[in-house]
Task: structure prediction
Amino acid sequence: MKPQVISENDLHAYVDGALPVTRRAEVEDWLGGEPAEAARVEAYRAQKAALKALFEPVLAEPLPPELAGFAERPVVDPLPAAHAGWRATSLLRLAASLVLALLGGVAGWLAHGQYGAGERLAQGLPLSHQAAVAHVVYSPDVRRPVEVAADQEEQLVKWLSKRLGTPVSPPRLGAVGYELVGGRLLPGNSGPVAQFMYQDGSGQRLTLYVTTEGVGKPETGFRFAREGAINVFYWIDGKFGYALSAGIDKGELAKVATAVYDQLEKAK
Amino acid sequence: MDSRDILVEIPRLRRYARALLGDRAAADDLVQDTLERAWTRFAQWRAGSDLRAWLFSIMHNLRVDQLRRPALPTETLGEDAGQVPTRPTQSDQLEVMDIESALRQLPEEQREVLLLVGLDDMSYGEVASALGIPLGTVMSRLSRGRERLRQIMAGRQPGASLRVVK
Result:
């Protein structure tokens, strides 16, 4: 038998089963004549087996909830599935609170960069941010997403118009696949704002946030903001500021925003 | 990145972190930080590439960051650090130590390689890419780590013999 040159790396690859068959046989032959090296290799194997045995049980340990939660993207789309049960709802609440925490951070950071302290107090939070938070809070709600449901639309319109001090009514979005679920009144920076909620056939929800705050600001075209997992189109038109929020992609949301805008224009 | 894929990897990440750090809470914190960072950077993960290696490399980098800003002033032990920190009186010097406390005595850079190869069955190439080091460095750390562990387990002080060689 010709002498083999066996390197240190060969020995480790041998321990780790990483050698091709022929080389493996050569190492084995060589170890047969080198008892000290064979003992060393055996010790490495024993180490490996002992480490595996020692830490193997960790694999079977149940995951703590704070880790299991990370199987999903931490900021998930907070919209419920069609058959969301109690568990799903509470998970969604949790997700919503995560989104809120994130939004809070984002808004704080944005506000810090954009406004001085005095200005920030006077202006309150940006429209897109307020709308996104309101969306995240109410759209996952399975049982009470709205205060007044669409089957009482007349009352809804009367009530919200009265509270906002100016006529407001929800646009019809059936043409783009969304039906009115209903609406609710919310606190804005300095007074009431209205939120209308819509839903498509799959249960996907979007909300239209309508505020009279910031009246007198110049009108704007569509603006887009991404608040966590929520996309928001917002604009100021006449007496109203509008923000349309949903956890859907920007292109689809833009279609709906255009439909909303067109109807509001026609109604003028 | 699919949630099922992630779910499969979490127990492995935990096992590795536990073996690396020894402390359960610290290990789970590291796993949590890793997953958080993975989700914020998942756009950087190339679909089809090895998810596990990517996650381990994130964990490694986090750990490197942690070690860079230590809570207490520490000294980094190089690969050839002559002295393994041991108790001043070694009455148990000749006893065979258990593998876990022996593992704690290895420099972390050797422990990493040893665990990725030994626990997670990573190939040497995968270890090199997860840790961002050359293959040759993987092999030398593996070799030193294993030998050091063997000597500690056998009750010898590898530091002493290394110093004699120097």
Notes: Chain B has two domains: 3-68, 99-165. The CA atoms of residues 18 and 26 of chain B lie 8 Å apart. Residues 72-96, 158-166 of chain B have pLDDT under 50 and may be disordered.
